[in-house]
Specification:
Elements lengths: L12 H18 L9 H13 L5 H14 L1 H16 L18 H18 L1 H14 L4 H13 L1
Length: 157
């Protein structure tokens, strides 16, 4: 079972969604397949099917999370503040700040970034993922402390 905050902060949307997507990416990596990013339209379709069937899938949770962040007044307020701060910079005439604003208000763009982050993280943390999975298959269940210990022992190697 996966859990996400009831009302996530804007900066939590992409990494939390990446976490929800990581399982499918890990399966692809394990099978030696190229990691396929599910198009956003397909994510929406999968989420609608799951919602109608009463299934709390990762697709449905991802879409809900991204929409919550995109529609949050906190997101709008935060992005407005970032734009105001960029406008207050004392730059020479005719130049503009190259301040990339996060795509939090755009669920589709946030989804694309979450897919990229999930793929990167699965490759980066593969030894840790594999160690936790092996212990999970051996024991049947793990608590958070056990997972941390496995991850830390893998990182020490």
């Amino acid at each position: 079972m996966t859990s996400t905050p009831v009302h996530p902060f804007p900066w939590q949307g992409i990494p939390l969604t990446a976490g929800l997507l990581a399982g499918e990416y890990a399966v692809s990596h394990l099978l030696g397949e190229e990691i396929r990013h599910v198009p956003f339209d397909e994510l929406i379709e999968d989420a609608q099917i799951d919602e109608e069937g009463g299934t709390e899938s990762d697709a449905l949770l991802s879409l809900r999370l991204l929409r919550e962040v995109a529609e949050s007044p906190v997101t709008k307020r935060y992005l407005d503040q970032m734009k105001e701060q960029a406008a207050m910079l004392d730059l020479p005439s005719g130049t503009s700040p190259s301040l990339p604003l996060p795509p939090w208000e755009d669920a589709e763009e946030s989804y694309k970034q979450a897919c990229e982050e999930a793929a990167r993280n699965v490759k980066l943390f593969w030894p840790e993922i594999e160690a936790v999975a092996e212990k999970l298959m051996e024991k049947g269940c793990l608590d958070g402390e056990e997972c941390v210990a496995i991850i830390e022992s893998t990182s020490a190697d």
